[in-house]
Specification:
146 residues; alpha+beta; eight-stranded antiparallel β-sheet; two-stranded antiparallel ribbon; 17% helix
Length: 146
């Protein structure tokens, strides 16, 4: 099993700068989180390769009904030493982690995480390793509506 993560990076010479990593092993998850902790790294959009694609009936990526899109919406970030994760799929409404109350809010162009949604980076790593192995919403963490 594997997933692909894509995230924006700050580059003074390229307004569209981004990075990407295909994650196939638990060690790759650690590499991903190390790269997301770099200054200038934004939240990663994550697409699991072993989940179904669904028909884009709303026309998000072209003519309605003509394009297949992932059946899930997952994003992960590291900010101020905390890990952040959002998740949605056909069986789960859009949610974020229930984290440490002292964790700060984190806002980006793609996703916003409320204060209290950050967890220790080790907990984020465990959640992403679970997602990698199962292609399902991680169960070893607590979720709250986003």
């Amino acid at each position: 099993m594997s997933f692909t993560a894509v995230w924006p990076t700050i580059d003074q010479n390229d307004a569209d700068a981004a990075d990407e990593l295909t994650v196939s092993t638990p060690e790759d998850v650690d590499t991903l989180l190390s790269r997301l902790a770099d200054p200038g790294a934004g939240p990663a959009v994550i697409e699991h390769q072993d989940r179904e694609l669904i028909t884009d009936t709303e026309g998000l990526l072209g003519e309605p009904g003509t394009t297949k899109i992932p059946d899930h919406d997952v994003a992960a970030a590291i900010h101020n030493g905390y890990g952040y994760l959002t998740y949605a799929d056909p069986d789960h409404d859009y949610s974020t982690l229930k984290g440490e109350p002292s964790s700060p809010e984190y806002r980006s162009e793609y996703v916003d995480y409320p204060a209290g949604a950050g967890v220790p980076v080790e907990a984020l790593a465990a959640a992403l390793k679970d997602f990698l192995a199962t292609a399902k919403r991680p169960t070893g963490v607590d979720w709250q509506p986003a």
